Amino acid sequence: MAIGAAVTFLCRTKIDPREPPPIHSTIPFFGHIIGVLREGPLYIARISAKSNAPIFTMPMLGGKSYVCRDPQFAALIQRASSTLDFDGIVADMTPRLVGSDRRTRQMLKNNTAWMKRSHEVINPPLGQQRMGAITAIQLRQFSEFVNQVQDGQEVDLFRFITTKVTASTMRAFYGPRNPFAVDPSLIGAFWDWESDIVAYMTGILPSIFAQKARNGLERCVEGFDKYAKVDGYKDAYYLLQNRKALHEEIGISRHEHARLELGICLAFNPNASTIAFWILNNICSRPELLAEIREEIEKNAIIAPGTISFPKLRDACPLLNSVYKETMRTTAPMTSARLVREDTVIADTYLLRKGAFVQIAGSLLHEDASIWGPDVSSFNPRRFQHFSNGSKTDINGNVSSAKADQIHASAFRGFGGGASLCPGRHIAQMEIISLTAAIVSAFDLVAPEGKHVVAWDPPRNVKKFIIAAVKPLELLKVRFKKREGTENVQWILQA
Ligand code: HEM
């Protein structure tokens, strides 16, 4: 017993008293890793209850990770970007995600010039003022999609929405000859890769432990390679043309560029389409909310029979936008990671040691009753109605409109924050609220033939480590039924 205790003590990672307080695992060295592998994000939530500190230390594998669960500290971590680095993590992770060869990995590793130029190429064309071309194509395609759904069509809602949104997004960004249009089975291959991407990324015998992901990835890479061969980029959004030119300039081969292309598709596709699924689930499963949302859209965003204005959805439909944000709060508790490049003191309080990782834990911030109010675990459609950052609820779940109850901007982690704030957030909002508005205006989602009710709110895959919004664990079968009086309407989503 005494020897065990001594070994445990000696194996402990050394923690300076100025560092955030440690939460030790009972099994030294590997304990936290085992917990995380077994329970996923739930493990961090469980052990976080052992400390009240705004940041705590998880010692593991001889190193350590700091976990932040406080909005003020999150903001300070984001601000300290000169020593708490995000780009290095991206440059290290991206090649792992897409299976780059050793040469490409080396080229990108710590290549700060590449990262800086990548941001310059990627971020501005996704901005609110510059996204007009993408908006026009997406809205035209979503309109066609909604008009083509058959009255009475039965689908698994998750697969249906994610497939359509993926196809549409690829068309918008890569043009009509995009690999997923040439071979639509690549949509399934893409999602095979995405759904097991964390296992694939570890690099531990992917042909055994992540076979489906690997096969899916390789098929997509092949598709992008062919797309480049036939000069499909001629029709691509200029962001992608410029990114290809940048990769050519620094000596990345066509095949390796095809791999990196999957990295950006990972940003464009899974989150927006998964959230589109959850928002439909959240609205259509609540008849009163559905009626209110329809009324709001009808009053404020339908500008001619069957014509829905996206700017009006964005600017004049506060309930729809609140439901969108609340859907993200409850299904996209994203974690932002930073690598500590130099010892850094946060808020004159905590020392963060060079070489450690800091995580701003969306799963803790989004579930904290002291931030959001006592109904934090419930879906509250009005939580973001008064302020874009949300406001705290009272004991009865009422959402306060008092400025004092406005929630700290860094508490909502759906789009990350600071240096890693999602540059695609305006496009995501455009896609999700527009598609949602068109579907709820055109259809009732009812039980499939032979069933009495829709099995709304499928269980979620909360144990799985994700890099995108949480997925449903079961099918959600619904029947699209045209709403009475709208049978002959041709829907138009207008930019
Ligand atoms: C609701 C949908 C979306 C969610 C929840 C989301 C979330 C995020 C988050 C959390 C990050 C930061 C990653 C990190 O800190 O590690 C991020 C980055 C990024 N997102 Fe999104 N995103 C969404 C949609 C989109 C869309 C539609 C696009 C493009 C059209 C996009 C483009 C990007 C890009 C390019 C980055 C990388 C930024 C960088 O490396 O600096 N995202 N996104």
UniProtKB/TrEMBL annotation:
GO molecular function: heme binding; iron ion binding; monooxygenase activity; oxidoreductase activity, acting on paired donors, with incorporation or reduction of molecular oxygen
Cofactor: heme
InterPro entries: CYP450_monoxygenase_sec-met, Cyt_P450, Cyt_P450_E_grp-IV, Cyt_P450_sf
UniProt: heme binding residues: C422
Signal peptide: none
Annotated keywords: Heme, Iron, Metal-binding
PANTHER family per record: P450, PUTATIVE (EUROFUNG)-RELATED
Family label: Belongs to the cytochrome P450 family.
Protein known as: Cytochrome P450
Organism of derivation: Bimuria novae-zelandiae CBS 107.79
